[in-house]
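Predict the 3D structure for this chain.
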Amino acid sequence: MFAACGDGVGDFALGVKATPVMQDALVRNNPDCFVPPYVGRYGWVGLRLHPGTDWALVDRLLQDAHAATAGRGKRRPRSE
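Done. Predicted structure below.
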């Protein structure tokens, strides 16, 4: 899992997997970013979504999160 949507402390938000360094930089430099409860300690970052959302940032965050998790392990095929 590399992203999730939900309630971000009263706002609708996107949560994405990030490195702790990236999380720190985003939270420091973007007022819409926050450390989400429960998964924040693992590097996840939350981004509040609203009409003025920077969708280019959302695109970059999703692509980076996907790239960081997509190559991990191989899934076994489902048994039928």
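The CA atoms of residues 7 and 13 lie 6 Å apart.
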